[in-house]
Amino acid sequence: MDDLSVYRKIIHIDMDAFYASVEQMDHPELRGKPLAVGGSSKRGVVAAASYEARKFGVRSAMSGALARKLCPGLLFVKPRFDRYREISLRIRQLFREYTDLVEPLSLDEAYLDVTRNKKGNPSATMLAAEIRQRILEETGLTASAGISINKFIAKIASDYNKPDGQKTVNPEDVIPFLHALDIKKFHGIGKVTAEKMYSLGIFTGKDLSLKPMEFLQEQFGKAGTHYYNIVRGIHLSPVKPDRTPKSIGAERTFAENLSSEIFMLERLDHIATELSGRLKEKKISGKTVTLKIKYSDFTLQTRSRTLPYFISDRSLILETAKALLYQDRLLNSVRLLGISVSNLNTPREEQVVVQLKFDF
Length: 360
Description:
disordered C terminus; MutS, DNA mismatch repair protein, domain I; Dna Ligase, domain 1; four-stranded antiparallel sheet
């Protein structure tokens, strides 16, 4: 960040408690009540929680049993992914009225590069406010936004004034903003990494910035270089337009580690449903299914199977993922499961990245 005059204008839009908000919008009797989207059984898992439920500590990926214990009056509703995808598609169509550089991360969030935009508006802050207002008017739902010079900072900023708010981190404010942040607020730094940083005397971005790259590489391996750069506002990853990538996947991290394949099947069902929706939305399919398993000790394992035909259907994805799960014994308890489909049947599009100098 030696030259603050060259930067992009990135907006990160994040829908507020998306699944739960859709249910409350469609069912007025649920409004203002603590609500969880997902299963309430012992093996059930919370896919999303309303803000009323979050006040009790209910979070996504939490077991339904624990959620009910934390919030005895919690209401559970079954997820309706077709409905969520329908609204998500409408929102993405709205985004493309502003820029073609739209990178969806999931059904409820996306990056927009508005350095050059279709409205000819030089203010990314004003564009974000306009987009949020249009989302509210056209869907009845609220969204939050973060605006800054790169995806990393925009992502952090979008969480700053949630729900139904936005925050802009101007180029000259990037370093002070990052230095003042608790290290656990850095996107990509999870609980385990944050605890290790605390043990090393790294509590804020300022503390992190004082550590030399060699020290960070020694403590965190390749990630050390990433941490060294991001605390200096250096994150060059471009916004990648909605296109056919090499693979498409979905995954879940669990609040409690799972030790039995039986308890993982319902989770795989949710993941397969979400993945199937993404594939069908893009109108593509693939032949290779990969199961990703991250164990409680953070060891990562993948198992893949290539089929003789292209698939995008939830049942076929789930059937293959189940076979992969049972293929070999588990090495430890599991904290994350993911499914991805690759060997896709649509050619990949190329992307042009533009960096310009403008007033923010």
